[in-house]
Specification:
The structure is a single chain. By secondary structure, this protein is α+β, with helices and mostly antiparallel strands. The chain has a domain at about 35-130: Sandwich (Immunoglobulin-like), CATH 2.60.40.790. The protein has 2 helices and 7 strands. The strands form 2 sheets. Strands 1-2-7-6 form a 4-stranded antiparallel sheet, with no helix packed on it. The radius of gyration is 24 Å and the shape is elongated.
Protein backbone atom coordinates (compact mmCIF):
# COMPACT_ATOMS: atom_id res chain seq x y z
CA UNK A 1 0.00 0.00 0.00
CA UNK A 2 1.26 3.50 -0.82
CA UNK A 3 1.82 6.14 1.82
CA UNK A 4 -1.23 8.35 2.31
CA UNK A 5 -0.73 12.05 1.57
CA UNK A 6 -3.05 14.92 2.43
CA UNK A 7 -5.18 15.83 -0.58
CA UNK A 8 -4.90 19.36 -1.92
CA UNK A 9 -7.62 20.04 -4.51
CA UNK A 10 -5.67 22.80 -6.24
CA UNK A 11 -2.55 20.74 -6.90
CA UNK A 12 -2.64 19.47 -10.50
CA UNK A 13 -2.41 15.71 -10.85
CA UNK A 14 0.75 15.89 -12.98
CA UNK A 15 2.60 17.88 -10.26
CA UNK A 16 2.04 15.41 -7.43
CA UNK A 17 4.79 12.91 -8.39
CA UNK A 18 7.31 15.79 -8.65
CA UNK A 19 6.22 17.17 -5.28
CA UNK A 20 6.85 13.77 -3.72
CA UNK A 21 10.39 13.64 -5.14
CA UNK A 22 11.27 17.07 -3.70
CA UNK A 23 9.60 16.29 -0.37
CA UNK A 24 11.65 13.11 0.04
CA UNK A 25 14.89 14.82 -1.04
CA UNK A 26 14.61 17.72 1.43
CA UNK A 27 12.99 15.79 4.31
CA UNK A 28 16.27 15.08 6.20
CA UNK A 29 16.96 18.83 6.42
CA UNK A 30 13.79 19.87 8.19
CA UNK A 31 11.84 16.88 9.42
CA UNK A 32 11.51 17.23 13.20
CA UNK A 33 9.67 13.92 13.54
CA UNK A 34 12.61 11.93 12.19
CA UNK A 35 15.04 13.73 14.49
CA UNK A 36 12.95 12.84 17.56
CA UNK A 37 12.70 16.43 18.69
CA UNK A 38 10.16 19.17 18.40
CA UNK A 39 10.04 22.87 19.02
CA UNK A 40 6.98 24.25 20.78
CA UNK A 41 5.55 27.43 19.28
CA UNK A 42 6.12 30.43 21.58
CA UNK A 43 4.89 34.02 21.85
CA UNK A 44 6.89 36.56 23.89
CA UNK A 45 5.28 39.83 24.98
CA UNK A 46 6.40 42.71 27.15
CA UNK A 47 4.41 45.02 29.38
CA UNK A 48 5.70 47.90 31.47
CA UNK A 49 6.12 45.59 34.45
CA UNK A 50 6.88 42.12 33.07
CA UNK A 51 7.73 39.77 30.22
CA UNK A 52 5.08 37.19 29.33
CA UNK A 53 5.93 33.97 27.49
CA UNK A 54 3.19 31.71 26.16
CA UNK A 55 4.21 28.28 24.85
CA UNK A 56 2.00 25.68 23.18
CA UNK A 57 2.61 22.39 24.97
CA UNK A 58 -0.30 20.14 23.96
CA UNK A 59 -0.56 16.86 25.80
CA UNK A 60 1.94 17.77 28.53
CA UNK A 61 1.02 17.81 32.20
CA UNK A 62 2.43 20.64 34.37
CA UNK A 63 4.73 18.20 36.18
CA UNK A 64 6.31 17.22 32.83
CA UNK A 65 7.56 20.77 32.20
CA UNK A 66 10.55 22.39 33.91
CA UNK A 67 10.90 26.19 34.04
CA UNK A 68 14.11 27.72 35.44
CA UNK A 69 15.50 31.24 35.68
CA UNK A 70 19.19 32.00 36.15
CA UNK A 71 20.30 35.62 36.05
CA UNK A 72 18.45 36.99 33.00
CA UNK A 73 17.97 33.64 31.23
CA UNK A 74 14.72 31.66 31.36
CA UNK A 75 14.67 28.01 30.22
CA UNK A 76 11.60 25.90 29.48
CA UNK A 77 12.22 22.21 28.88
CA UNK A 78 10.45 18.89 28.90
CA UNK A 79 9.66 15.82 26.87
CA UNK A 80 6.57 14.78 24.96
CA UNK A 81 6.28 11.01 24.56
CA UNK A 82 4.85 9.45 21.43
CA UNK A 83 1.61 7.56 21.46
CA UNK A 84 2.11 3.81 21.31
CA UNK A 85 0.50 1.82 18.53
CA UNK A 86 -2.49 -0.15 19.65
CA UNK A 87 -2.88 -3.77 18.69
CA UNK A 88 -4.72 -4.14 15.41
CA UNK A 89 -3.92 -0.60 14.23
CA UNK A 90 -1.93 0.28 11.15
CA UNK A 91 -0.86 3.90 11.09
CA UNK A 92 -0.89 5.62 7.71
CA UNK A 93 -0.11 9.21 8.71
CA UNK A 94 1.79 10.38 11.81
CA UNK A 95 2.03 14.17 11.97
CA UNK A 96 2.12 14.88 15.70
CA UNK A 97 5.61 15.67 16.95
CA UNK A 98 7.25 14.21 20.03
CA UNK A 99 10.59 14.14 21.80
CA UNK A 100 12.50 16.37 24.15
CA UNK A 101 12.57 20.13 23.81
CA UNK A 102 14.31 23.11 25.35
CA UNK A 103 13.63 26.79 24.73
CA UNK A 104 15.85 29.50 26.23
CA UNK A 105 15.14 33.23 26.46
CA UNK A 106 17.54 35.93 27.64
CA UNK A 107 15.96 39.15 28.83
CA UNK A 108 17.57 42.52 28.03
CA UNK A 109 17.28 43.86 31.56
CA UNK A 110 17.26 42.56 35.11
CA UNK A 111 14.28 40.50 36.17
CA UNK A 112 13.07 39.50 39.62
CA UNK A 113 13.64 35.74 40.15
CA UNK A 114 11.28 35.70 43.15
CA UNK A 115 8.34 36.95 41.10
CA UNK A 116 8.31 34.37 38.29
CA UNK A 117 4.99 32.58 37.89
CA UNK A 118 4.05 29.75 35.53
CA UNK A 119 0.67 28.18 34.86
CA UNK A 120 -0.57 25.64 32.36
CA UNK A 121 -4.11 25.58 31.04
CA UNK A 122 -5.48 23.59 28.09
CA UNK A 123 -1.99 22.94 26.68
CA UNK A 124 -0.86 26.57 26.93
CA UNK A 125 1.98 27.38 29.34
CA UNK A 126 2.06 31.02 30.46
CA UNK A 127 5.19 32.27 32.24
CA UNK A 128 5.31 35.78 33.67
CA UNK A 129 8.68 37.24 34.65
CA UNK A 130 8.45 40.56 36.47
CA UNK A 131 11.03 43.25 35.81
CA UNK A 132 13.08 44.70 38.63
CA UNK A 133 11.66 48.16 39.26
CA UNK A 134 14.19 50.70 38.14
CA UNK A 135 15.53 52.84 40.94
CA UNK A 136 14.30 56.38 40.82
CA UNK A 137 15.96 59.32 42.45
CA UNK A 138 14.56 60.18 45.84
CA UNK A 139 14.48 63.87 46.52
CA UNK A 140 15.96 64.83 49.87
CA UNK A 141 14.85 68.08 51.39
CA UNK A 142 17.64 70.46 52.32
CA UNK A 143 16.95 72.28 55.57
CA UNK A 144 18.52 75.47 56.76
CA UNK A 145 21.05 75.11 59.54
CA UNK A 146 19.91 76.43 62.91
Amino acid sequence: MNKLSPWHPFTPLYARPFDEVFREFFAPLNDEKKAGTWTPRVDVAETGEAYVIRAELPGLKPEEVEVTLKDKTLTIKGEKTSEQKREGETWHVVERSHGSFQRTFTFPENVDPQSVSAKSEHGLLTVEVRKVPESRPHRIAVKAAE
